[in-house]
């Protein structure tokens, strides 16, 4: 197992459990305890975990993995969700994409849609996510609008008043939100308040709002609210969403698509 793969696995386990012992992690990943100790020390240097005697813990309940380490979490569900979201978008529309792993998959699904291979433009993509803009910039049929702002390393998103300035000058047909939490009572939320503020503005500039979230995000709360549930038109999630969760969102007036 490569170091990057090992680090990704360690961080996944740490987020799930909150705490890991060296011996426990070594057994899980089938590597030596010395290797895990070295990994923990190096990850602690990058402030991605807190080293403890005999193991490691996450930084706290609001701990957030950098985007590059989140790509494997619920990957198949996110790809199914992304394909379903892509089908909701009509040729020629202006689409806002926030940052995140699920919205990155939406961008990829749009890029391979057969009816979007040509046009002037086939789509206008507005995003504050550097990685999404980078992936789609090679598609000449897409008009790419990047908001500007200050880059947030965890999510590759541009935030701050420079991003505000661009978004207040445009209108879009649909905003696709990636969220860390979505609850029928408390709305859509992110870990970071500056990120949430940009996402909120993107919603306000959109004719309709789509939340793309796997079932692990539903019924959860996070620090910074993006928008109320009532501001969302459609939720696209996976079939592991409970009937009760789906009912609550439908009662809030949201169309729920499970894939």
List the keywords.
259 residues, alpha/beta, seven-stranded parallel sheet, 9 helices
Describe the overall structure:
- This protein is an alpha/beta fold.
- Helices cover 37% and strands 24% of the residues.
- It has 9 helices and 15 strands.
- The protein has a 7-stranded parallel sheet with strand order 6-5-4-9-12-14-15, with helices on both faces. A 3-stranded antiparallel sheet has the order 1-3-2.
- Strand 2 (50-52) and strand 3 (55-57) form a beta hairpin.
- Helix 4 (75-87) packs across helix 5.
- The chain is globular and about 55 Å long.
- 41% of the residues are buried.
Secondary structure elements and pairings:
Blueprint: H1 3-17, E1 19-21, H2 22-29, H3 33-45, E2 50-52, E3 55-57, H4 75-87, E4 94-97, H5 101-111, E5 123-127, H6 130-136, E6 142-146, E7 150-152, E8 157-159, H7 161-167, E9 172-178, E10 181-183, E11 187-190, H8 193-204, E12 206-212, E13 224-227, E14 234-237, H9 243-251, E15 255-258
Parallel strand pairs: 4-5, 4-9, 5-6, 9-12, 12-14, 14-15
Antiparallel strand pairs: 1-3, 2-3, 7-8, 10-11, 11-13
| Biggest beta sheet summary | 7 strands, parallel
What is the number of strand segments?
15
Q: What gyration radius follows from the Cα positions, in whole Å? A: 19 Å
Low-confidence stretches: none
Strand order of the largest sheet: 6-5-4-9-12-14-15
How much of the sequence is in beta strands? 15-25%
Q: Secondary-structure element sequence? A: HEHHEEHEHEHEEEHEEEHEEEHE
Q: Structural class of the secondary elements? A: alpha/beta
């Amino acid at each position: 197992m490569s170091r990057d793969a090992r680090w990704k696995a360690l961080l996944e386990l740490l987020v799930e459990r909150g705490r890991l012992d060296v011996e426990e992690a070594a057994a899980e990943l089938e590597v030596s305890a010395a290797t895990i100790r070295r990994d923990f020390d190096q990850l602690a240097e990058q402030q991605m975990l807190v080293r403890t005697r005999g193991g490691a813990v996450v930084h706290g309940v609001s701990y957030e993995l950098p985007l590059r380490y989140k790509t494997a979490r619920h990957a198949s569900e996110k790809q199914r969700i992304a394909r379903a979201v892509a089908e909701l978008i009509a040729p020629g529309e202006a689409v806002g994409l926030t940052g995140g792993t699920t919205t990155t998959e939406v961008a990829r699904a749009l890029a391979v849609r057969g009816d979007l291979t040509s046009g002037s433009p086939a789509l206008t993509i507005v995003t504050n996510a550097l990685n999404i803009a980078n992936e789609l910039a090679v598609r000449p049929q897409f008009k790419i609008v990047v908001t500007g702002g200050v880059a947030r390393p965890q999510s590759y998103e541009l935030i701050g008043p420079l991003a505000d300035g661009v978004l207040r000058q445009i209108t879009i047909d649909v905003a696709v939100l990636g969220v860390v939490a979505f609850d029928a009572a408390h709305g859509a939320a992110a870990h970071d308040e500056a990120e949430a503020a940009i996402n909120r503005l993107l919603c306000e500039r959109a004719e309709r709002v789509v939340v793309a979230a796997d079932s692990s995000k539903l019924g959860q709360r996070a620090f910074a609210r993006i928008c109320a549930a009532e501001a969302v038109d459609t939720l696209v999630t996976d079939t592991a969403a409970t009937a009760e969760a789906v009912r609550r969102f439908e009662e809030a007036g949201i169309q729920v698509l499970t894939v």
